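We treat protein structure as text, and this decision shapes the records that our systems exchange. The tokens are whole numbers drawn from a learned vocabulary of local backbone shapes. Below, we set out a record of this kind in full and without editing:
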Amino acid sequence: MSWSTREIADLAGTSLRAVRHYHDVGLLPEPERRSNGYKQYGVAHLVRLLRIKRLVDLGFSLSRIAELGEDDHHPAEALRALDAELAATIERLQRARTELGLILRHHVPADWPADVAPPDAAVRMSEADRSLVAVMSRVLGPQRLEAYAELLRAAPRDPTDGEFDALPADADEATRQDLAERMAPHLRRIQEDHPGLADPHTDAPRGARFVSDVAAAAMRELYNPAQLDVFRRARDVLRAEREG
């Protein structure tokens, strides 16, 4: 019994291209040729091709299949390793589906770190604030990140939020100072309710200096000069209260 390349591909449930590729990478031996030059595949080729296709369908890479050779009794450790990889992939896909569901239900941007804070917190934030959260979630250490997450879960509201978000870059000094003084009590409550935010960045993966540099760069890019000045003025108000 012999078959052509197309016939054996059909029997194995694969494609001509796949059969040729398996020849090219050395997984499938080249068959003998008929007098007319056409390849003739036998039962052994079909069995080998079925084995390759089965392992590929299970998730084995072609290089790993080559390492297994012709042994039909696959090493238990190879199967266990593949099973662990598949379990990890399933878990990752399940997490992705959960996050996609949250994004769709709450209409939050895809860059929102759902593992840090609930999506409903993002809905109440400005685009700049959301972007800052996304950036800082990648550089903070575990302890500071947890304190940050607690703040986001609490989602404290400040009556001046809308004013701050809409503050034009050319706002005059009196407007900036007034807004800063009205923001200061809100910032004070945050500091009192979430003291962990003041902890040093001793557990930051890339060090405290890196966190400070990233935070400063993000602030400069996300907020206009008037908003940055209001932040500085509000901190000055709080500092004056402590020193007074």
